[in-house]
Design a protein that fits this description.
Layout (H helix, E strand, L loop, with lengths): L2 H22 L10 E5 L2 H4 L6 H21 L5 E7 L8 H5 L3 H7 L7 H12 L10 E4 L7 E2 L2 E2 L1
Parallel strand pairs: 1-2, 2-3
Antiparallel strand pairs: 4-5
Helix pairs in contact: 1-3
């Protein structure tokens, strides 16, 4: 992986998120009691082969989420992240297309995530139903326990 590619991935995933969080946490923009949710990834928790840089950039989001939650707690601003598994979108198509139905059922007993599953979790974290949740990175596992299938780490 080139340094240029590393910088681009980190700029996209963490640097931009930190800039948004900085702007968002301004008293001119957010009231006390606001909520901020970022999108991380399962790769932040359980990176696979070829996910070293991507996983590290997403892990940085999770780490920043904890620090920001502590820093903004005096204003009751909550910071959380969601860490979805593969989602049935254009980005997840390669995984889905190269995995048998049997393997998919073993990996995701609850079925592969849909975009709505991620959106529903974000809506929950933005709502008052989660008013006591902050500094968390929530793994949307679809039943995946992070184990292995046929000797392959997931």
């Amino acid at each position: 992986v080139t340094e240029e590619k590393i910088n681009k991935i980190f700029a996209t995933n963490i640097v931009s998120m930190m800039a948004i969080a900085k702007a968002f946490s301004s008293k001119r923009i957010s009231n006390n009691g606001a909520s901020f949710v970022s999108v991380s990834s399962r790769a932040a928790l359980l990176p696979d082969k070829s996910q070293g840089v991507y996983g590290a950039s997403k892990a940085a989001i999770n780490s920043y989420t904890v620090a920001a939650a502590k820093e903004m707690s005096n204003r009751l601003i909550r910071f959380n992240a969601v860490c979805p598994e593969a989602v049935d979108t254009e980005m997840g198509a390669g995984f889905k297309d190269n995995t048998t139905q049997e393997a998919m059922q073993k990996i995701y007993p609850l079925g592969m995530l849909e975009a709505e599953d991620v959106a529903d979790t974000i809506i929950f974290l933005l709502s008052d139903m989660s008013k006591k949740i902050t500094g968390q990175s929530i793994w949307l596992s679809a039943g995946n326990d992070g184990g292995s299938i046929d000797g392959h780490i997931l």
